[in-house]
Design a protein that fits this description.
Helices cover 51% and strands 10% of the residues. The protein is an alpha/beta fold. It has four domains: 142 residues, Rossmann fold (3-Layer(aba) Sandwich), CATH 3.40.50.300; 61 residues; 168 residues, P-loop containing nucleotide triphosphate hydrolases (Rossmann fold), CATH 3.40.50.300; 85 residues, Helicase, Ruva Protein, domain 3. The radius of gyration is 30 Å and the shape is elongated.
């Protein structure tokens, strides 16, 4: 393992700008996401300009000598001691402190702002320069005085610099492909993957990306709980499958073409059709196809509580981190039925619009609906939904294919039914209806066998099941809106 880690290109650019800002002003904010290298950059600046570098450890050392609740006082004392002895003070991870004092229910609101205002004034009098590293926005007293230096997102070259610090020089990795697979990995994640895989002989790009998938990418769907479904299991929706293959799966899976042509999946997809025509089944097929790149929002998340907003944000944040990825919103028209919570769909619209940025441009939101007209008009405007797909009732050929496949797995007389005849008798039924017919026919047959009644022709059981299903629909469909 190499003892010295050089800065990546984006980290070096941020360090250069920070040093330049020190020549121009007295207060500088270094902004970067988790694992972007803020501490490494501060170490570099301290090596070049001297001064004191303060972080969580130094703060806790001061806090343990004070009353447990003396957060602002401890912070003020730590900074005052440093600026009295140095011309430059670098404060790492300021967001850890602001997260505490800005949390709901914190009893001393805005006291940190007062402390920071005093610190900044004292530093100005003493001629001490202050640098604050944060993940999000700096507190207002700092933000309104500071020059901002932001760490850009890592490029493939940055990935290479980080990984090569821990891998052998001859590891044949395609860092452009790794970056396309997951463009928002942190330096910690890249380091951990490299350290772990450095022990593996014949390391290649496929093994590296598979490790990332298993360790750093987490879908909110437990695949073992999702029935296994493949495109070949879907009948009568060949045009839908073709569109999903070309406009969703291809940008995910064909690295060469995606890189050469800068392909991105469609940002918004609406899958509309009557109940039972395979919309959720298509979602299951995508979940298995995309594995850790698939995220689900359904009625189990939307439960009419304020927690919905937090859970939806977490889903969108995880999808951005794992891009390219799919967010699958099932039964969207049911979620918005009756406009029960106008704030809910406005919040979701905000999340959708947030995917327009370049960094999130490879997140696809796929929505299903039984009745597209029930969706808020604003959700369907151009730009939010880029691909409209329709699932339809299966035609005679599709019904015959579905029935043949189901019958092939049934032993004995009942499995010998004439699929062509049954397909003709099931006009207007959905794929879900056909599955129900097969299950009901098996139960009717088993009932005769259990009573030692001579079996009828196999088709008779299926025709009875079809008649019962149609009778149920005539009786109950008007009451439930089908």
């Amino acid at each position: 393992m190499k003892p010295n880690i050089v800065l990546t290109s984006v980290q070096q650019a941020a360090a250069d700008r920070l040093l330049e800002s020190l020549d121009a002003g007295n207060v500088i904010v270094l902004k970067g996401g988790p694992g972007s290298g803020k501490t490494t950059i501060l170490d570099t600046v301290q090596a070049a300009r001297g001064g004191a570098l303060l972080g969580a450890r130094q703060f806790m050392d001061v806090l343990k000598t004070q009353a447990p609740a003396a957060i602002e006082e401890s912070f003020l004392r730590m900074i005052e001691d440093a600026i009295l002895a140095n011309n430059l003070v670098l404060v790492d991870d300021l967001h850890l402190l602001t997260n505490i004092v800005e949390s709901r229910g914190y009893p001393r609101s805005y006291l940190l702002d007062a402390a920071l205002t005093g610190i900044l004034a004292e530093a100005g009098v003493l001629g001490c320069k202050l640098v604050f590293a944060v993940e999000d926005e700096a507190p207002w007293p700092v933000q309104r005085r500071a020059y901002l230096t932001a760490i850009a997102e890592f490029t493939p070259d940055d990935y290479a610099v980080i990984c090569r610090a821990y891998l052998t020089d001859d590891a044949p990795l395609d860092y452009a492909r790794i970056h396309r697979f997951s463009p928002r990995l942190t330096a910690y994640q890249l380091k951990n993957a490299s350290v772990w895989l450095a022990r593996r002989p014949n390391l290649n790009t496929a093994a590296f990306t598979e490790y990332l998938r298993s360790q750093d990418m987490t879908s909110n769907v437990e695949l073992q709980e999702v029935p296994p479904v493949d495109w070949k299991d879907l009948k009568g929706v060949d045009d839908v499958i073709r569109a999903l293959e070309a406009k969703i799966a291809l940008p995910f899976e064909n690295d060469a073409l995606a890189g050469e042509l800068r392909l991105k999946p469609k940002r918004g997809v609406l899958l509309a059709g009557p109940p039972g025509t395979g919309k959720t089944t298509i979602g299951r097929a995508l979940a298995h196809r995309l594995k850790s790149k698939f995220f689900l929002i359904d009625g189990t998340i939307v439960a009419g509580t304020g927690d919905f907003y937090c859970q939806v944000r977490e889903v969108f944040d995880a999808a951005r981190r794992n891009a390219p990825s799919v967010i699958f919103i099932d039964d969207t028209d049911v979620i918005f039925e009756g406009n029960g919570d106008p704030g809910l769909y406005r919040y979701l619209l905000t999340m959708l619009d947030g995917l327009e940025s370049a960094s999130a441009g490879r997140v696809c939101v796929m929505m299903t609906a039984m009745n597209a007209a029930a969706l808020p008009a604003a959700m369907l405007r151009s730009g939010r939904v880029e691909l409209w797909l329709e699932t339809r009732l299966p035609d005679a050929g599709a019904r015959e294919q579905i029935l043949r496949e189901r019958l092939a797995g049934i032993p004995g007389v009942i499995g010998s039914a004439d699929a062509l005849r049954l397909a003709s008798a099931t006009h207007g039924l959905t794929g879900a209806d056909l599955n129900a017919v097969v299950e009901d026919a098996k139960l009717l047959f088993a009932h005769d066998v259990s009573r030692s009644v001579a079996p009828r022709a196999a088709e008779a059981y299926f025709l009875d099941a079809i008649a019962e299903l149609r009778a149920t629909r005539r009786t109950y469909a008007p009451r439930i809106g089908f």
